[in-house]
Design brief:
The structure holds 2 protein chains of 2 kinds. By secondary structure, chain A is an alpha+beta fold. Chain A contains 7 helices and 10 strands. Chain B has helices at 6-15, 20-23, 47-50, 54-64, 79-88, 117-126, 168-184, 189-196, 258-261, 270-284, 302-312, 328-337, 354-359, 366-378, 397-417, 449-463, 474-484, 488-499, 513-522, 527-531, 552-563, and strands spanning 37-43, 69-75, 106-110, 142-146, 162-164, 202-203, 212-213, 241-244, 246-247, 266-267, 288-292, 318-320, 344-350, 383-390, 425-432, 468-471, 546-547. The A-B interface holds A 19-21, 23-25, 27-28, 31-32, 34-39, 46, 50, 52, 65, 93-97 and B 13-14, 19-20, 23-27, 231, 233-235, 239, 282-287, 316, 341.
C-alpha cells in the first residue's frame, strides 16, 4: 500500500448509521461514502500505488443489523475545505439514516482510530419485556457466558469468556422495554461482536430467552486515553 | 397509500439474506410522492439484476417527471424472503413507500427474457392479484407488460391488460395521462382500455384482432433521458453510470433480434452524449461509465466522447465500451478506455467457420479476426474472451469443429506475436442458437438437443486445455426457444409451471426442466416440439400482427440468402430495403 505525503489534508468525521442503514455492510458503506464525496464535489486524496484508492479509514464497523450513534471515518482530501462547509455539502448527498455529527481537521501525528478507540458502549432493547431488571442482574451474576469463535483459515475454534471481556453490564427499564447496557472492547485483537454478546445473554439468561430482541445500538465509543 | 405493517416487515428483514434489497432509501430514489397515478415499476428478477437495467432507470425518471404521476420500484424477492412473506402474511410491497403492489393504479412489468415469466406470476400472486386478466376486476391495478419479449406477446398476453410494444419513452407518457384523465372523469376500466388501444405501441389483448405498430423514438437527441440514477446501497450487477449513445444497429446479423426490432440506427449527437454523461456522473458520484449501444464503434463521435470523459472527469474515470467489433478502430478505443494492466478484450465472432459467418451475415473474415488479435497481442493484451453460438441453421459438426481450429490458431498467434510474459488467458463462451421472432431466422427450428450435446462434447474434446470453455445449458435454451415463438396455448404451460413451483428459471441452478416438460404436457404441448417448430420463409406467422416496420418479404429474402450463404450489405454500405424506410432513402444518422 503506497502512502505519500502530498498536499492533502486529513479530517475526522463522526456519523450515525441508523434506521435502514443498519442493513448495509461495511463494504456497501465504503462505496456509499466514496460516491457521496464525489456528488458533493469534495475530491478525496488517493494513494499513489499501482491501484490508486481513496484514503478512507473507518473505525471498527458495527455488524449488520446494529445501529450506531458513534461511527468514525478519517479521510484525506485534495485542496482544503472549511469543516462546516464540508458537512453542509456532504449531508444532502447521504441517504436517510447516515447523519454527519461533525467533521474536524486532524493535526499531523494524530492517533489513528484503531489506536484511539478502545471500547464501545451498546444498548440492546428487548421489546415489551416486563421483566424485573433486578432478576436479569441476578441471573447475569450467576451465568457463564462462553462464546465459541470459529477459527479462521483452519485454526481451531476459540472459546471466549464474554463475561470477563465485558467491561460493564447493566439492566434497566425504559419505555416499558428492558434495556441492557454493556461495554465491549473495540481493539481488533480483543474485539467482541455485540450481536454475539446479546445472543449469549438470550441463550444463558432464562428471563430473556422468550422475549423478542428489538434492536442493538452502539451509543458511544471510549478512548484508551480516557 | 397504505403501507405494510412496519413491525412485521422489520421481522422479515432481520431474517432475510440481504435486507437492503427491500428497503429502498437509496440516494436519488423518490419517496413520499402523493400521486394521482401510482405506477409500480416491476422487474421480474432480483434487485441486483433489475437495478442494472437501463430501461428501468429511464422509465423511473420519466414517469416521476410526469405531473401527477409517481413511480415506485418492486423486484422479485428471493426465495427466502418469499417464504417469510407467505409465513407472516406480508404482501408484495414497493421499495419507496412500502405500499402493497395491489394498491397501485398500474403495475408495469419489464420482461427482459422469456425465462422471467414465472417470476411475473409469482409477484402477482404475492401481491394477491389474480394472475389472468379476465379474473381481475375494477379494483385491481392495470397490469402492463413491456420489454423485448413483447414482440411476440402470445405466450403471456392472457396475464396482462395491456402489452406495450416498442420503445416506451413516448407511449408511456400518453398512457399515464390517459389514465389520469380517466380517473378524474370516473371512467370504467373497459373504457380506458379501449382508448389506450389508440396509443401507438399499445396492444390490448382483450380487444383482440388489432394490428400493433411498435412505438419508437424518432429523435434520440430530444428523447427523455434521466439526469440522475438511483444509486444502490448494495452492489448490483452493473454498478456504474450508463449512457445510451445510439439505438439500433446497422449490421443485420440474421439471428439478432435487437438488430431488427430497434431499426433504424439512431445515434445521439456528441453534445447530447456529453451532456447526459456529465449529468449522470455529477448526480450519482459513479467513477465508471458505460457507453451503451448495440455496436459502440458504429456511433459517430464515440472516440471524442471517450476522450472528453477522460479529460473532463479525470484519469480515474473508467469508460466501458460494450459490443466491440473486431477491427483496429475498436482496439484503439478500448486501449484508451481501460487501464493498461488487466485489459480484457471481448469479441463475438459468433461462428467458427467462414461458411457459417456468411450464413448469419456476420460480415467478419478470419483474416480480420486474426489481424485484430495480432495487433492486440503486440500491444500487450493477455486476456481474450470470445462468444460463439452453435445450433445455427445449416450448421454441421465440421463448422463447429472450426471453432476449435480458430482457438488453436489464436493460441499459435499469441506465441508468435505476444509482447507480454504471461500465458494467454483465452475464454470461449458457447451458447445455443435460439430462433427469435422478427428476425430472418424466425423460421428455423431450435437444433435437436442431442445434436447440440454432441457438438458441445466435440468442442470440449477438441479445445481441451487450449481455452477455458463454457457451454450454455441446452435445456434452458430449449425452454427459451419454446416460449419465444410460442402461441396462446403456451400461456397455459407457463401458468402450470408456476403452479408446479418453477421460479427464477433463468438461474441454471434453479431451473427444473422436468417440471417444465410436465407443465407443457398438461397444456397439451410438447416442449421439444414447440422449440423445434419450423416455418417456410414467407408464410404468415402468428406474431405478424406485431409490426416492426421491417417487412416479412425482407425476412423471407434474408432467410433464403442465408440458405445459399449470401451476405447482405450493412446500412452504411447501402440500403438493403428492409422496409423501415419507405422509398429506400438513407435512414441512419438523420
Amino acid at each position: 500500500m503506497a502512502n505519500n505525503v502530498a498536499a492533502s489534508e486529513k479530517y475526522r468525521m463522526c456519523y450515525k448509521k441508523t434506521g435502514d442503514m443498519a442493513y448495509i455492510s461495511q463494504l456497501d458503506l465504503q462505496r456509499l461514502f466514496q460516491r457521496a464525496f464525489r456528488r458533493a464535489g469534495i475530491r478525496l486524496a488517493h494513494t499513489h500505488g499501482f491501484n490508486p484508492h481513496p484514503k478512507l479509514a473507518f473505525s471498527m464497523p458495527v455488524p449488520i443489523f446494529v445501529e450506531s450513534e458513534a461511527e468514525y471515518l478519517d479521510f484525506s482530501i485534495e485542496g482544503s475545505h472549511d469543516d462546516a462547509t464540508m458537512q453542509q455539502l456532504l449531508q444532502p448527498c447521504l441517504p436517510e439514516g447516515i447523519f454527519v455529527v461533525g467533521i474536524t481537521k486532524l493535526l499531523p501525528n494524530s492517533l489513528s482510530l484503531s489506536k484511539l478507540i478502545s471500547n464501545a458502549r451498546y444498548e440492546a432493547y428487548f421489546s415489551g419485556a416486563g421483566i424485573d431488571p433486578a432478576l436479569a442482574d441476578a441471573e447475569y451474576e450467576s451465568a457463564s457466558l462462553i462464546y465459541t469463535k470459529e477459527g479462521k483459515k483452519g485454526k481451531p475454534d476459540k472459546q471466549i469468556d464474554l463475561k470477563a471481556s465485558a467491561r460493564f453490564v447493566d439492566f434497566n427499564v425504559s419505555n416499558g422495554d428492558l434495556v441492557t447496557t454493556f461495554v465491549l472492547p473495540m481493539s481488533s485483537a480483543s474485539y467482541i461482536n455485540p450481536s454475539a454478546f446479546t445472543q449469549a445473554l438470550q441463550e444463558n439468561l432464562s428471563c430473556l430467552g422468550a422475549v423478542e430482541l428489538g434492536g442493538i445500538r452502539k451509543v458511544s465509543v471510549m478512548s484508551s486515553l480516557d | 397509500m397504505r403501507q405494510i405493517d412496519k413491525k412485521k416487515l422489520a421481522n422479515l428483514l432481520k431474517k432475510s439474506e440481504k435486507p437492503a434489497r427491500y428497503t429502498g432509501g437509496e440516494p436519488n430514489s423518490i419517496k413520499g410522492r402523493d400521486a394521482q397515478v401510482n405506477f409500480a415499476l416491476a422487474f421480474p428478477d432480483t434487485y441486483e439484476i433489475g437495478m442494472s437495467h437501463l430501461g428501468l432507470r429511464i422509465l423511473y425518471g420519466l414517469i416521476n417527471s410526469i405531473d401527477g404521476a409517481g413511480a415506485q420500484r418492486v423486484f422479485t424477492p428471493l426465495t427466502d424472503m418469499i417464504s417469510l412473506m407467505r409465513q407472516e402474511g406480508v404482501e408484495l410491497f414497493s421499495l419507496e413507500e412500502r405500499a402493497p403492489i395491489g394498491d397501485f393504479d398500474i403495475v408495469g412489468f419489464s420482461i427482459p427474457y422469456e425465462l422471467a415469466l414465472t417470476n411475473v406470476l409469482e409477484m402477482l400472486e404475492l401481491a394477491s392479484i389474480p394472475l389472468k386478466s379476465k379474473d381481475r376486476g375494477a379494483n385491481h391495478p392495470i397490469i402492463i407488460a413491456g420489454g423485448v419479449c413483447t414482440y411476440n406477446p402470445l405466450p403471456f398476453e392472457e396475464f396482462f391488460d395491456i402489452i406495450f410494444v416498442g420503445e416506451a419513452e413516448e407511449g408511456i407518457v400518453a398512457l399515464v395521462e390517459l389514465l389520469k384523465a380517466s380517473k378524474e372523469s370516473g371512467q370504467a376500466k373497459a373504457g380506458f382500455l379501449s382508448k389506450a388501444a389508440g396509443i401507438r405501441g399499445v396492444y390490448v389483448p382483450s380487444l383482440g384482432g388489432q394490428l400493433v405498430s411498435r412505438a419508437f423514438v424518432e429523435d434520440m437527441d430530444n428523447a427523455y433521458f434521466p439526469s440522475s440514477f438511483v444509486v444502490p446501497l448494495i452492489e448490483i450487477i452493473h454498478d456504474r453510470a450508463s449512457v445510451e449513445i445510439m439505438r439500433g444497429c446497422a449490421r443485420g446479423c440474421r439471428f439478432c433480434q435487437s438488430g431488427f426490432i430497434y431499426r433504424p440506427l439512431r445515434p445521439k449527437s456528441l453534445d447530447t452524449i456529453k451532456r447526459q454523461a456529465d449529468a449522470i456522473l455529477a448526480s450519482t458520484g459513479y467513477s465508471e461509465i458505460s457507453l451503451a449501444s448495440l455496436s459502440s464503434t458504429d456511433c459517430p463521435g464515440v472516440d471524442e466522447a471517450i476522450s472528453y470523459l477522460r479529460e473532463e472527469h479525470g484519469a480515474g474515470m473508467k469508460v466501458a465500451l460494450p459490443s466491440l467489433r473486431m477491427d483496429s478502430y475498436s482496439l484503439a478505443l478500448s486501449r484508451d478506455t481501460s487501464t493498461q494492466r488487466s485489459m480484457l478484450l471481448t469479441f463475438a465472432p459468433e461462428a467458427g467457420s467462414q461458411r457459417m459467418r456468411d450464413i448469419i451475415n456476420k460480415n467478419l473474415t478470419e483474416e480480420q479476426i486474426l489481424s485484430t488479435l495480432r495487433e492486440a497481442f503486440n500491444s500487450g493484451t493477455t486476456k481474450i474472451k470470445l462468444y460463439f453460438m452453435i445450433g445455427l441453421p445449416f450448421e454441421t459438426d465440421e463448422d463447429v469443429a472450426e471453432i476449435a481450429s480458430l482457438v488453436q490458431k489464436i493460441n499459435l498467434l499469441y506465441l508468435k506475436e505476444r509482447t507480454a510474459k504471461k500465458p494467454l488467458a483465452l475464454s470461449v463462451s458457447v451458447s445455443c442458437f435460439i430462433p427469435k421472432v422478427h428476425t430472418p431466422f424466425q423460421y428455423f427450428p431450435f437444433e435437436d438437443p442431442t445434436a447440440l450435446a454432441r457438438r458441445q462434447e466435440l468442442l470440449r474434446s477438441l479445445i481441451g486445455k487450449k481455452a477455458k470453455l463454457s457451454c450454455h445449458p441446452i435445456g434452458a435454451s430449449m425452454l427459451e426457444a419454446a416460449i419465444a415463438r410460442g402461441g396462446r396455448q403456451t400461456a397455459e404451460a407457463i401458468f402450470n409451471a408456476h403452479k408446479l413451483g418453477c421460479l427464477f428459471d433463468s438461474w441454471p441452478e434453479k431451473l427444473d426442466l422436468g417440471k417444465w416438460e410436465e407443465a407443457f404436457a398438461q397444456a397439451g404441448l410438447d416442449l421439444r416440439e414447440e422449440a423445434q417448430k419450423q416455418y417456410t420463409p414467407g408464410e404468415a406467422l402468428p406474431w405478424d400482427f406485431i409490426q416492426t416496420g421491417v417487412s416479412n418479404g425482407f425476412f423471407a429474402l434474408e432467410a433464403k440468402r442465408a440458405a445459399s450463404g449470401q451476405t447482405t450489405v450493412n446500412c452504411f454500405e447501402g440500403c438493403s430495403g428492409c422496409g423501415i424506410s419507405p422509398g429506400g432513402r438513407d435512414c441512419y444518422g438523420k
